[in-house]
Write a structure and sequence with these properties.
16% of the residues lie in helices and 33% in strands. The chain is built from 13 helices and 36 strands. The termini are far apart.
């Protein structure tokens, strides 16, 4: 009798609900959701191949019963949605938002609480999120940890950066999943503060390729009022578990019902190009909040920036520290002679921008405070309205306007968040009064107040507050060192750019990996565009600063290609005007290339090796092609069948010379022209660390 009772008890404890399944609209993806022993689980297949094996769902709460176990499926609802929408700016003119949805209501009998999980299955992958309805037994709650799992089906090739709560500015590491622990030390990067949270923790977007050729990408969408997610790998079972960024006291988030989590996203395909073309993350974000978007326009700009990054010039007006913001009389201070943001010098940039058709000039180091801004844990640093004595705000605004050029504002917050928020309205009004319509904001250093992290809930809310506040003044935002994008630019399209990854500036800090720009489109750019700041023609940094021996790990031709492969509606020609004047034939491509697109094609792609894009300019029949490769070099083969059959075109090809090499001969390039139609093909040499760019202009 005891044995029978034990058997019945064990049977009750191992109850598994019937799996609920849905297919993607094209039938290639299959999602299964079930409760196993009281634990909600899901699994995802693509063309009958496992993408995610059975994985657990749930959340651990602080000082309350968890939302991990004891669940049963109380209700389920299926639906289908299909629409098309036009982004304010983007890689394509129209985006289709088509998915099958499964909404599962989970009941936890022991606490009389409900947890909803909403799954949306697209033709390019899966998005799901937790939803917390308003209910008597769950009102205010604190997250101890989110326990979402992603169980991998094999020891995949993985492109990753270390788990860090404050920076993404790492070179990518390529390894198998099982090798991440051993490779973690290799991920250490000079000039990056090391705050890696574990030996197997990695950040998203995370890109993988299975041994049998399945490409998988994991990220999140619509990150609002919640902490950023990273992933912790169990390198024995190959299961990732979510890790949320903590706050100063270690909590992972403070929520009040009704509320939702961000979407957890899984994009997969047997073609690498499909990952790059996925719009799943954008589609999981809400439509734009703005009725009028006419003031939001893509920007091609130059700037007083690279000369400071290389050490040729300085942000600070004087070398004397402790210059306080209430000091307006600099007559007793001695200028250091290297201050770049001075009136005459900025006029030189405005002249160059006007002559070559650029929209704007970015000026950094124009405002008081740069002598004593970094690493001092100072609350009150910049006021964002007080210029140095050699920077004529009104005069330069008038000079720029007369030349049909905008000045781009720079707000370095030094991560003193209260200081920025106390000045925000005044700073944005100052911009409006002086003709600025876009701002590059920066968050360098540890967050003040101490203990908060760049990617925690508190900072996530700040970044969005800054975007919304800027919109009140019709200002576009390009946020550096901020949270990595999760598609929010659909909802708030004045967010026209982000850094949030290791950009071109690191070419002056020791250099980026040669395969860096063949990986970033598969990782960082999945959630939104990057202000990568390409266009460096003088690849030896010592040409600007003899004390700096860094060099740009790229050929000149590949620098042109980046304007096509590194998508952004905000593109900078980052080198100095005097350098471009030495290479005006190559500079022509930067002048010609569009920054907003009606259509995009991925012609070739393999993460870590090469990418070739073709993009059709907005309201035009002109196309632009860009290709970038790693240190091995290759021969690229392009089929021009994307062109209109009834039209003829002239292609201007900017390519590596035969003897070009990113280390030994980076400035060796060739330019040639050829007539092409939609039946034309091209076989093009790419040097190690090289690539090519093509302008394909319709012949009328």
């Amino acid at each position: 009798m005891k044995k029978v009772l034990l058997f019945v008890l064990l049977a009750c404890l191992s109850i598994t609900s019937e799996a609920k399944t849905i297919l993607s609209p094209d039938g290639n993806f299959k999602l299964s959701v079930e409760v196993v022993n009281g634990v909600p689980t899901y699994q995802l297949n693509y063309k009958n191949r496992p993408v995610i094996k059975r994985s657990n769902l749930g959340l651990d709460l602080k000082e309350q019963p968890d939302l991990l176990t004891g669940f049963a499926i109380a209700a389920e609802k299926e639906s289908t949605f299909d629409e098309s929408w036009n982004p304010v700016w983007g890689e394509v003119k129209t985006i289709r938002n088509h998915y099958n949805e499964l909404l599962v209501t989970l009941s936890q009998a022991s606490t009389s609480r409900e947890l909803l999980v909403r799954f949306r299955l697209f033709d390019d992958g899966l998005g799901f999120r937790y939803e917390f309805p308003e209910q008597p037994n769950l009102k205010y709650f604190t997250l101890k940890e989110e326990k979402t799992e992603f169980a991998m089906a094999g020891d995949h090739k993985t492109f990753w950066i270390p788990g860090d709560y404050d920076t993404q500015e790492y070179n990518s590491v390529t390894s198998k999943l099982s090798e991440i622990r051993g490779k973690m030390k290799e991920a250490s990067t000079p000039n990056v503060s090391q705050k890696i949270f574990s030996e197997t923790g990695v950040q998203t977007p995370l890109m993988m390729k299975s041994p049998d050729g399945l490409y998988i990408n994991i990220h999140e969408a619509a990150l609002v009022d919640y902490s950023c997610m990273s992933l912790e790998l169990n390198d024995r079972t190959l299961v990732f578990e979510s890790v949320l960024t903590p706050d100063a006291v270690g909590d992972k988030g403070y929520l009040q019902t009704p509320c939702t989590s961000p979407w957890r996203t899984i994009v997969a395909s047997d073609k690498a190009a499909d990952i790059l073309m996925s719009k799943l993350i954008l589609n999981l974000n809400e439509p734009t909040k703005f009725e009028d978007t006419s003031w939001i326009k893509p920007v091609k700009y130059i700037g007083v920036w690279w000369e400071m990054i290389t050490g040729k010039s300085s942000w600070a007006y004087t070398d004397i520290e402790n210059v306080q913001l209430d000091v307006t009389d600099f007559s007793k201070t001695k200028p250091n002679g290297k201050h770049a943001a001075n009136t005459d010098h900025v006029k030189r940039y405005i002249d160059f921008a006007a002559k070559h058709g650029f929209d704007a000039v970015l000026v950094e180091g124009w405002n008081v405070g740069w002598e004593d801004w970094f690493g001092k844990t100072k609350d009150y640093v910049f006021d964002f309205v007080t210029p140095y004595p050699d920077f004529d705000v009104k005069g330069l605004q008038q000079y720029a306007a007369a030349n049909n050029v905008k000045l781009m504002m720079h707000h370095e917050t030094s991560s003193s968040i209260r200081n920025y928020e106390r000045h925000m309205d005044e700073a944005y009004q100052f911009m409006v009064d002086n003709g600025y319509n876009s701002v590059k904001s920066g968050y360098v250093g540890d967050i003040i107040p101490r203990g908060e992290h760049h990617y925690g809930q508190w900072m996530v809310n700040h970044y969005l507050h800054a975007i919304k506040k800027a919109a009140d003044y019709k200002i576009m935002v390009n946020a550096h060192e901020a949270i990595r994008p999760t598609g929010l630019a659909r909802t708030y399209p004045n967010l026209i750019g982000n850094e949030s990854a290791r950009g071109t500036e690191y070419e002056s800090f020791g250099g980026n990996n040669t395969d860096h720009t063949t990986i970033l489109p598969f990782t960082r750019l999945m959630g939104g565009p990057m202000d990568y700041t390409p266009g460096i023609f003088e690849t030896k940094v010592s040409a600007y600063n003899p004390a700096n021996n860094s060099f740009v790990h790229s050929t000149l031709a590949r620098q042109l290609a980046l304007y096509v492969t590194m998508y952004s509606p905000l593109q900078m020609a980052a080198d100095l005007p005097e350098t471009y004047e030495k290479f005006m034939d190559a500079f022509q491509f930067i002048k010609d290339v569009a920054i907003d697109w009606d259509d995009t094609k991925v012609l070739e792609a393999e993460p870590g090796d090469y990418i070739t894009y073709a993009r059709k300019a907005k309201n035009s029949n002109n196309w632009f092609v860009g290709s970038t490769c790693d240190e091995d070099g290759r021969t690229s083969v392009v089929n021009f069948d994307f062109l209109d059959a009834d039209k003829k075109y002239e292609a201007i090809i900017y390519s590596d010379a035969k003897d070009a090499h990113f280390e030994t001969n980076p400035q060796a390039y060739e330019i040639r022209k050829m007539k092409v139609t939609n039946k034309s093909k091209l076989s093009q040499h790419c040097a190690p660390g090289g690539g090519y760019a093509i302008s394909v202009m319709e012949i009328k």
